[in-house]
Every structure is written in C-alpha cells, then in structure tokens.
Amino acid sequence: MIIVEKIAKNFGEVVAVQDVGFTAEDGMITTLLGANGSGKSTTLRTVAALLKPDQGQVTVDGICVQKDPLKAQERLGIFPDQFGLYTRLTAREHLEYYAQIHGLTGTALKHAIDEVVSLLHMEDILDRRTEGFSQGQRMKVALARAIVHKPQNIVLDEPTRGLDVMSIRMLRQILLELKSAGHCVLLSSHVMAEVEILSDHVVMIAGGVVCADGTPAELVEAAKQPNLEEAFVALTSAHERNAA
Amino acid sequence: MNRLFKVVYRKEMKDMLRDKRAVLAIASYAFGVPLLMAFVFFLMADDKGAEVRTSVAVAGLEQAPGLVAYFEREGLEVTASTIADEPKTLPSSSDALVILPEDFAEKLEDGQPAQVQLYVDDRSRTQAERGGEVRDALNGYMMHVASARLIARGVPPILMQPLAVNTSDLAPSSFINKMLGNSLMLIFMLAPFVMGMSVALDALAGERERQSLQSLMAQPIATGMLVAGKWAMVASFAFGGTLLAVTVDLILLQFVPADLLPFKLQLTAGGFALAVLELAVLSMFVASALLAVSIHAKSFKEGQTYMSMLMMAPVIVGYVKMYGESKLPEVANYLPIFADVESMARIFFDGAPNVTVTLSALGSSLVGTAICLWLTTRRLSSEQMLSET
C-alpha cells in the first residue's frame, strides 16, 4: 500500500506539486489522472524516492520513503515513462541485472526470470540484444524488469505512451492480473478510455493539487457528467476557477 | 555491499566489452601509437649507415694541403667545392662545408689568423653530430698548427694549457634525453585517458542519453555503490589498455637499434613492477576524473566535447614539464600526472625510482580519485540530474 500525505515540491520558482495526498490500496489499480505538467510524474518520482518532497511524506507498506529510501525501493517496481534499455544487453541480461540488485541469486533468480518471461510471453526475445526491438518488445522488457523481483507495489508512469493497440491490450491484461494477485498498482495517465477501463480508484490532479478523488463512477456522478472525460474537464475547470 | 558492487561491475564490463567504440579505442592506441613511433624512428634514421665516413666539402682546398691531410687522418672524407659565397644548403652528400679565404696559405705562413667559414646543418641528430666532428677536427688542426709554431720558437706547447679541465654532468639525464624521454612518458600518461574515455562517457552520459538512469536510480542501491561499480569498470579499461600499450611500446623499443634511440632505457624488473603499480593508481585517478566529467554531459556527443577539453590537460602538463620544468613551483611535484611523468621517467631512464616523487605520484592520484568520486556521487545524487534527464 502506498500512502501519499500532502506532499509539495518546487523546482526553484516552479511549483510542480502543491498539495497532493491519496492512498493506493493493495489489490487495486489507482490512477493519477491529469493534464501534461499537472504534477503526476513529480508525484510518482517522489513515491520512487527519486525526489524529496519539500513538505509531506510518502510511505510504502509502512516504510517512510524519505527516511529509508532503499528499504522502500525494495518494495517497489518502477516502470518509468522512458523504457531506457541497454542496447548491447539481451532481455535476459536486463532481468538478471535488476533481479540481482534486488538480491536474487542462483535458483531463485532463475525461477523469477522464468516466471516473468512466461507471464509476459517473452520466450522469443529473451536471448536477443534489445537493439532493434519494437516498442511493444521494449515495453515487455521494461515491465518484466520492474516486476521480476515480485514487488508488492508497482508504479507505472504513463505506461501506454507510444504503444500500439495490441501492446496496450496486453499491458492492460497484465496489470489486471497483478491487481488480482493482490498487488498495489499505481499509474499515471491522461488517456481517459484506459483510465475508465482499468482504474478502481482515480486521483484527478490539476496545477499540482488533487481536485477530485474516487472511483470512476463516483467522479462521473459528482460532476454530473455523462462520462469520465467530461467529468475530468468539469472538475479540473471548477478547481482552476476556484484557485483563480 | 560487496555483492552490489560486483553486480554493477559485471554488468558494466559485459556491456562495455560489447561496445565496438571502446574496443577500437584500445586497439588503435595500443597498436597505432607504436606504429607511429616506428615511423618517427624511421625518419630519425639517416640514409647513411654508421659506417659511412663524415664528408666535408672544402672550398679552396688547394691552398691547405696540411688541413686536408689532417682531416683525412681524423677519418673525414674530403671533397673539393667551388662555392665561394654564402651557400643556401650544403653541397650534395656533404655533412659540412669549409670555405677557406684566398689568402689562407699566406696568412698561415705569416702567423696571422685566417678567417675560415664553417657551414653545418643541424636539422637531424646525426647531421648535427657529423657537423660537430668537422668542427672538432678544425679545432684540432688549429691546436696542431699553434703547437708547431710554439715549438719552432722554442716554447713548450704545454705552456698554452694552464688548466686541464675535466667536465662531469651531474644532471640525471641530459636535456635532449629528458625531453624525448618525457615525450614517451607522455604517451604512457595519455593512454588511460584514451582507453577510458569512451566507456566513461557511456557509463554516465550514455545512461542519461538512453534514459535508463531514472529506472536505475529507483532501484535499492546506494548512489555511491553505483558510482563505485562504474568507476571500477572504467579503471579496468583504462589500466588494461594502458598496460597493453606500454607492453607493445616496450617490445617495439627492443627492436630499435640502440644508436637510433634518443634515450637509453634502464628498466629493471623491479622498476617495471613499480611502473605497473603507478599506472594502476594513475588509471584509477583518470577513471574517476573521466566519470566526474561524464556526469555533467546529457548526451554522448556533449560528453565528447567535454572530454576533448579534459584530454588537453595531460598534453599541457607534458609540455610544461618538458619545456618549463625549471620554472615550475615545488607544489607541481605533488600533483597527479606532473609527479607521474617525473617518477616514470626516473624508473625508465635512470634505472632507480626517486622514492619521494613516486610516493607523491601515488598519493596525489589516490587523493584525486577520492575527490572525483565524491563529486560524481554528489552530482548523481542530486535531483537536478533527473530533472535534466
């Protein structure tokens, strides 16, 4: 479970996040929904211990990220907005590297790789160098790398960006399987259809502030709109008017 | 802690050994520089072999049969020349030109000084030596004639030599020996920079360019450990490549005739072991400096610009050491590379290390390594790194 408590983060004069707080429960998919520059990525980077908040705190399974970042990172699987693969390494070598950093060795390491390869159907690309991989194949390696150590909490920053329909469908299926297995899945997105299909819990962010929080149905009802997209526009516009 | 260091080191080595740029950099320096050296030695070698006699052209030799006889007794080959004015070059296949005035014989007979003009060409070491031989022969003839005159007047020639001067050079190496020797040391000092540059760039600037840094930094591994693993990889490349380059150079030098070498190697087995240790420590320092530069570049291309500026440092140090050593402050002997050039030169050319200089080379490199690694870790830990990515 990930708890974000009233975090704020500035970069010099730029206010990235003013007041963001929410809870991402185990066995649920929680989505941060917001426009570009709303503070989603900054929030996720704070959860991943890549940034230190100026105010507030984040806990992962009860571990304070700011006080013990390495311990918190052991319980996280991070799927960044850029896949960032090593082109001279094979998919298997990527998985080995990340699994070894998480302390897996020997038989445990082999089993972990076999399991994630089977889950993501990566047998055909496992021993190929990642140079020249398609976007879908790159996504598989990045996702496998993030979950090979079986983290309880999985954080994905705009995971469907740049993917084709088949890859998106596969990713969606895997996220639902992770959720069913009791993992806490926290992702960011601005694709309404994806959010509506996947999310159990949506956190709407605008201007670095949480402007609405609930299930997709609750948000649609609260905004008195026909769908989530209209609800998002209505709720974020209302927030911006109030802020002004 | 040790486990994570090994994990990062193994991954980095595997990745970089597959990098054609890195392997090519090592091969080209290790084998290309010796080839360049061989070419330079080829140029330094004159067409004439050592057994060919020094040739002197004499204009007006019909007036000086005594001088010609003296030259020939000294082993010089004398040819006649018709040049009377100031020449632009030496006559073909001559090592020196002596122009005697028209009144040479007359002046000699009258006991007056005759104005003799000697032309030499010092553009190569061998030609300079041959010109020197002719100069010495002229001086010898002068003393010979002066002695004969004194004897004819009943004066013992020994009276003309109130002092018998013996000169001993206390310099550990002659200037030319030292300068050319330092050039060889500079080639050795540059090696870790060339060997480590590509992999250092890939290890940090490349990590930022391919945007893998964010994912890596989100793993449970301390930044210092990450830097240590990458540093060990760069140091391995720098040291391995340098050792290969030095070994190839030393093997090549064994095949060069000793009289063609501008310096004399006096390397002992113990000295070689000490030189290897010093190169290992220097490689550690260079690896840390390369990483400290690489961390500031957002891309490989940007990093190459910074690296080309960094590469100037050892070259400048080398030239300052060669040409301005006497003006350097004492503190220079305690700086990395400065101390290394001096220490390695002593090991290679004097046959015995200067303990103080060698210790300061090792110490300054270790201190420099610690500072550069601290700076790199600090920079990698900063949030600015990710916001710039």
Explain this structure.
The complex is a heterodimer of chains A (244) and B (389). Chain A has 244 residues and is an alpha/beta fold. Chain A has a domain at 81-150. Helix content of chain A is 41%, strand content 25%. Chain A contains nine helices and ten strands. In chain A, the strands form two sheets. A six-stranded mixed β-sheet of chain A has the order 6-7-8-3-9-10, sandwiched between helices. A four-stranded antiparallel β-sheet of chain A has the order 2-1-4-5. In chain A, helix 3 runs parallel beside helix 5 and helix 8 (216-223) crosses helix 9 (228-243). The model of chain A has no long low-confidence stretch (mean pLDDT 91). With 389 residues, chain B is mainly alpha-helical. Chain B folds into two domains: 2-44 and 174-388, no CATH class; 55-160, Rossmann fold (3-Layer(aba) Sandwich). Chain B is built from 13 helices and four strands. Chain B has helices spanning 2-17, 20-44, 65-73, 104-110, 125-152, 175-209, 213-217, 223-254, 269-294, 300-323, 338-350, 355-381, 383-388; strands at 55-59, 77-81, 96-99, 117-120. A four-stranded mixed β-sheet of chain B has the order 2-1-3-4, covered by helices on one side. In chain B, helix 2 runs parallel beside helix 8, helix 6 (175-209) packs across helix 11 (338-350) and helix 9 runs parallel beside helix 12 (355-381). The relative contact order of chain B is 0.11. At the A-B interface, helix 2, helix 3 and helix 5 of A face helix 1, helix 7 and helix 13 of B.
